[in-house]
Amino acid sequence: MEQPHNNIRPLREEKSLTLTGLSKELKKTGFSISADALGKYERGDREPKLATWQKLADFFGVSVGHLQGRPLFDEYKNNLTDITEKFSNYNNEYVKQKKELDELNIQYKLLANKFDHNLATNEDFKQKEKILEKVKDLRKNINYSRIELAKTIQQLDESKDILLKELETIDTLIKNNKDDEK
């Protein structure tokens, strides 16, 4: 049998309560539910109504999403913020490197003009070698930045997909709750 994906049991055990004990504690708060029903919810044999999820979440002092075993929205938000910041940093670095590469290309073209007209000096030869070395290093760095940008875009897409699934789950729960109330 598939393990339930909710956190009812771990939260109950954290409070050192049996199913019967949890049922009694909930009754003290004005919420009457049998130990048998709680066991079915824990095992995932039955899905509680949204109002039941909320009462259980209130009792345990957690969000409904956490109780249901879904990662907390704040975790996604923080992860998204971190990924966005990382993307911004790589993008800024990429833009800076591209600008530097463009400047080196201009310098190289000016030197090439001197070589074409046999006006190059020993210093120009040294300058040309330095520019070529810098261009080589920059191209490596730019490729690295492109790869990292692609990775962060993928992470952003994955986080977006997870958030969309979470929202769909919440919408379904709300719809099911409204259907149950009819």
Query: Biggest sheet, open or closed, and with what strands and sense?
Result: none
Structural class of the helices, strands and pairings?
A: mainly alpha
Q: Percent helix among the residues? A: over 70%
Radius of gyration: 30 Å
Distance between the termini: 32 Å
Shape: rod-shaped
What count of helical segments does DSSP give? 7
The overall strand count is 0
**Secondary-structure element order, N to C:** HHHHHHH
Beta-strand content bin: under 5%
Low-confidence stretches: none
Could you report the average pLDDT, rounded to the nearest whole number? 85
What does this structure look like?
The model has no long low-confidence stretch (mean pLDDT 85). 80% of the residues lie in helices and 0% in strands. The chain has helices at residues 8-14, 19-28, 35-43, 50-60, 64-67, 73-116, 122-181. The protein is built from seven helices and no strands. It is mainly alpha-helical.
The gist of it:
This protein has helices at residues 8-14, 19-28, 35-43, 50-60, 64-67, 73-116, 122-181. It is mostly helical and 182 residues long. 11% of the residues are buried.
